[in-house]
Each structure stands twice: as C-alpha cells, then as structure tokens.
Amino acid sequence: MDIKDIAKLSQVSVSTVSRVINNHPDVKYETRERILEVIKQTNYIPNNSARILKKNNDKSIGILVKGVYNPFFSEMVKIMSDKIKQANYTMILQYYDQKSKEDVNALITFIKEKKLQGVICLGGDFTDISDDNFKGLDVSVVLTSVTNISKTAFNKFSSIGIEDEKSAYKATEYLIKNGHRTILLIIGSYEDIGAGKLRVDGYRQALNNYGLCYDEELVAIGDYSFDKAYNATIDILKNRKDITAIFAISDIMAIGAAKAVINSGYRIGDDISIMGFDGMEMGKYYNPSITTIYQPKTKMANMSVELLLSLMNKKGKNKHITLDTKLVEGESCKPI
C-alpha cells in the first residue's frame, strides 16, 4: 500500500493526498475527511523519507509523530522543520498509528531502520522505555509532548512538556470562578493513561476544591476529533439542559463541541461557555474565538531541536524540562 493506492481509493490525485498528510489547508473538508478515512481503514502509515535515506544520516534528524492527523503536532513539525533546516540538517519525518500501544518499539525500529543519530518524538507513551532499549545504539532522543515517560531511564533521553494536571485545574477553576457549576468535560478516551488522565485529574481536583461533585454523566468521549466531539455533545445536550460550560481537553474537540452547541440552538458564551486546551491557530480564528490553555508550541519545538543538536554534538547532557502554560481568553467564555 503506497500513496498512489490511497489516491486511487480516495478518487483524488496523489498531490491531494500529500497535502492532506502534510496538513496543508487548501483541501476541502469533505475531501480531507474522505482521504483520512481511507488512510485509517487501510492502516496506511505515510513515510516521505525513502529519498532522504540515500544520504548520510549523520546530518539527518528523525521526527516521529504519533497520529497521522494531529493539527497541534503539525504546527510543531513546521517550526521544527525550519529550525532543522537553519542548522543545515535534513529532517526525516515519519508518522505511526494513533491507536498503537507499541510506542517504544516504534521509536527503536525508526532509529534502526533509518540509522539515525538523533530523534524527536511527538506524542506517545514511553513509560516502559528502559536502558535495555538503547543497547548497541548511539542515539540522542528528545521526547516532546508525550503522555508518559519512564522514571528509570532518565539518563538515556531528554523530555520537554507541560504540567497537564495543573493546567487543566486552571481551566476548570476559571469556569467555576465565572459562575459555572455544571461543566461538561470532553476527553479523548477512558483508556488514556497519560496527558488525558492528568487533565481529567485537574478537572476533578478543581471541582472538589470548590465543593462541586464529579458527575460521570458529564464526561463525554471525543476521541480527539471534531466529529466525535460534535456528536457526543449533541447527544448530551439533548438530555442535560443544565450545562452552562464545556471544557474540552483539546482545541479540536472544543471546536467540534462549539458547532454542536450552535446546532442545538444555544449561543456560545451567552448560553454555554467553551474552554479548549492547546492554543491552536484555528481556535483563535474560530468565531467566536476559543478560550484555551495555551501550550508554548513554538518554544517547545525550538527547544526540542536545540536540545537534540547539543546532545548529538556532545555539547550537552540530557535534561527534563517543564514549560509553563497560560490561559488565553477568547470570546467563547462568559460569566453567569
């Protein structure tokens, strides 16, 4: 299965499939969704690196991304690409399945197959990574915005991330302080043991500290997608007329929920406030703009490349860095 097969099954050109894979904006929504569905059904994993592999990988940096379509990571990849190019290195970009539970194996396989000396991982669960995984490998690794990392192999890799629980607490507290008491939470899935779980913990801790009860009926599964967040919100709003605010743990799900609020006959902000998480460009230009927890993606991306280059050039040691987030007020939240 290659990109030509995906194009044929999707009834579009190869260039259109390429634009979707690389998250270019100039593709119609319906076309993009059709191509992504074909990619999902065929388990196709894009790999634009074959041409690059003919070169000497001493000057190549691998970027391993979990999930074919993740707009937040796509924004970071663009920043990293520019930074890598400025350093006169070549980027090898590879995606793998969002639902995979073999994140460590995906990383080690990527390193061995591409003969890489440096890799940045975007997303993934690396709780089980150990010293044994790096036997026989002379490689520098930076784990960026991953869900979990091993506590026993800290000297083998670096990491850059945020405090997810603290940030989610901040988002929930903001809604509570604006008078909201019935807050719908939209999560990725119940199986999420990493960042998603920490954000749920932050939400629950804020409720508890302000004397509010956690209600399982006010938790919806959005699967980090527009359509599933939309459908979940539509269903809940049919039965729960008391909801005054929604906290979605990603901006993608927040935008899906916003559409559902409008189509359910409510006004965003005036009737139901909406809080997102990530600080993506699309949220800023949505109408009304989405109030969100902003992750410093530019700083995170640039620091990842800088840290990796220092490790590859033996000029630095492994570090574990936590960056601050900030709540950015849009027009989607109002006090009641």
UniProtKB/TrEMBL annotation:
It holds the Pfam family Peripla_BP_3. Keywords: DNA-binding, Transcription, Transcription regulation. Residues 1-55 form the HTH lacI-type domain. Signal peptide: none annotated. InterPro entries: HTH_LacI (IPR000843), LacI/GalR-like_sensor (IPR046335), Lambda_DNA-bd_dom_sf (IPR010982), Peripla_BP_I (IPR028082). It comes from the Bacteria. GO terms for molecular function: DNA-binding transcription factor activity; transcription cis-regulatory region binding. This is Catabolite control protein A. It comes from Clostridium liquoris. The gene is ccpA_3.
